[in-house]
Design brief:
By secondary structure, the protein is α/β, with parallel strands linked by helices. It folds into 3 domains: about 110 residues, Urease, subunit C, domain 1; about 100 residues, Roll (Diaminopimelate Epimerase, Chain A, domain 1); about 260 residues, Metal-dependent hydrolases (TIM Barrel). The chain is built from 17 helices and 20 strands. The strands form 3 sheets. Strands 5-11-12-13-14-15-16-17 form an 8-stranded parallel beta sheet. Helix 10 links the parallel strand 14 and strand 15. The longest helix is centred in the middle third of the chain and has 16 residues. It starts with 10 loop residues before the first strand and ends with a strand. The structure holds zinc ion (ZN). The site of zinc ion has 4 residues, from loops.
Length: about 500
């Protein structure tokens, strides 16, 4: 990308760009962080001191949002070794050995953590000696997929002062205890990992996230911004246990946070009312094949009371509801409270409830990749009813405002993976599409991944992503891994552009 020398970057011209689906070359002028003019290439009036970046016919779209992220968990996961593919204890040890070989400065004294091993099908067995032989004396702890078992080496056993037998394994309570210890990292370490993961997301076109990390997010993000975080915008969610504190501090959803450098705002009030599909705790109208209908963790009356407090204090509720029973309860409460808001996940919805999303003006915050991760679980647990599972098309057609996300770390903070899942209902893995009648068009998926209904408009913040192809025209495989040349937040390059 050739460019003229940059002076002060309050004025920026993006020259020779295209809008997806259109062929005309345009220039976009940015002034003080906002789109100030859009016009035919080479024909906008000169803005003195404006830096010009020639984008060479690339495609510009509004920057992408991930509407449901657990940012700290995502950053921690990105710094843990993935052992989910290990077919034996020996293979797991080999994965650890090669990961350690790639560590800078031996991991800066931190314990090396691996996750996701499944030893049930292994022909060999884990042992202290096997892991010691792969780890050069660095402390290493490996967590099983279900988190009920930790495999550690001698250095980790001595660091955490736990006694292990030659198997190197801890199970149940000692495993849970050690897992909690492993999560206690200095803020500076976690914040540095968050900066790296955020930068990687910016490189995929992300300009903002809604962070639902389960903590008092205000101070966490103030600290990160003070230390230089500037990769994207953050709407920092609040949980019910902190609602009084938030109200007392004068906070309300959408309010810019003091010390947030214009990037951080108070997010929605997150309320969980049921569990999940894979644990069969999503609250359903009909019983699971194994019995039970899942768990409603907050009663309808309690939910109504919370939504009333949210309404009276300016918080937008974001109600986690996965099962069709939970969605029914959430819709009832929104109707009774007379407040708009969001339902997070909306994975399974009664047929008669779709229209209520539109009538109540609700946002369905959905994670399209989960449909593909959980298609087998849905087929077995919601057999005969999956035509209303992960129902993106039904929600949109019923007037819901769709907002796409990942629920990272449950799925990757990767907007193109999410949009690809939404538009094809399959991965490029040979398995056919799952309920393709629930797919979105690419235009709809892009709109649901941006704020401002998917259009670049004069007067809006210059939150933009620059793509190497036309997202409405490239083949599915390219769309799923879309090359992103540059990303801007308020007219500032957060990726590319130099
Ligand atoms: Zn979540």
């Amino acid at each position: 990308m050739p460019q003229s020398p940059a002076a002060d970057v309050t004025a920026l011209r993006l020259a020779s760009v295209r809008i997806p689906g259109e062929s005309a070359l345009l220039d976009i002028q940015v002034l003080d962080g906002e789109v100030s003019r859009i016009g035919p290439a080479g024909q906008l009036p000169v803005v003195p001191g404006s830096r010009e970046v020639d984008l060479d016919g690339r495609y510009v779209i509004p920057g992408l949002w991930d509407e449901h992220v657990h940012m700290t968990q995502w950053a921690l996961g990105a710094n843990r070794i993935d052992l989910s593919g290990a077919a034996s204890a020996g293979e797991a040890a080999d994965v650890v050995r090669s990961s350690i070989a790639r560590l800078d400065d031996d991991g800066a004294g931190l314990t090396v953590v691996g996750v996701g091993f499944r030893d049930a099908g292994w022909a060999d067995v884990p042992s202290l000696a096997l892991l010691d032989g792969a780890t050069r004396g660095l402390p290493v702890a490996l967590l099983s997929h279900d988190l009920h078992c930790v495999w550690l080496n001698s250095a980790a056993a001595s660091r955490y002062e736990v006694a292990v037998d030659p198997s190197g394994l801890l199970r149940e309570d000692p495993a849970f205890h050690l897992t909690r210890e492993l999560g206690k990292l200095p803020d500076a370490v976690v914040d540095a990992w968050v900066r790296e993961s955020a930068q990687a997301a910016a490189a995929r076109g992300i300009v903002g996230i809604v962070d639902f990390e389960m903590t008092w997010n205000r101070d966490v993000w103030r600290r990160r911004v003070a230390e230089g975080f500037d990769s994207f915008r953050v709407d920092a969610g609040v949980y019910p246990q902190d609602l009084d504190r938030a109200i007392g501090a004068g906070m309300r959803t959408g309010q810019p946070l003091d010390g947030g450098n214009g990037l951080v705002r108070v997010g929605p009030l997150k309320v969980l009312i049921d569990g999940s599909l894979n644990t069969r705790t999503a609250y359903c109208v009909d019983p699971y094949p194994h019995g039970g209908r899942g768990l409603l963790t907050v009663s309808e009356a309690e939910l109504l009371e919370l939504l009333g407090r949210a309404r009276d204090s300016g918080f937008v509720p974001a109600v986690h509801a996965i099962g069709d029973g939970a969605n029914e309860v959430a819709l009832n409460a929104f109707a009774a409270a007379g407040i708009r808001g969001r339902i997070e996940h909306a994975q399974f919805v009664r047929r008669q409830d779709f229209a209520r999303f539109g009538e109540l003006g609700l946002t369905a915050s959905v994670q399209p990749a989960h449909a593909l991760d959980d298609r087998d679980a849905a087929d077995s647990n919601w057999a005969g009813r999956t035509d209303r599972a992960f129902p993106l098309r039904s929600l949109l057609d019923a007037g819901a405002i769709l907002a796409l996300g990942s629920d990272a770390p449950v799925a990757a903070l990767e907007p193109w993976t999410a949009m690809s899942a939404a538009t094809t209902r399959t991965r490029q893995d040979g398995r056919g599409p799952w309920h393709p009648e629930q797919a979105l068009t690419r235009e709809e998926a892009l709109t649901a991944s941006t704020r401002g209904r998917g259009r670049i408009r004069v007067g809006n913040p210059a939150d933009l992503a620059v793509l190497d192809g036309d997202p409405l025209a490239v083949p599915d495989a390219v769309f799923a891994a879309m090359p992103v040349a540059a990303t801007l937040v308020a007219g500032r390059f957060t990726h590319g552009g130099h």
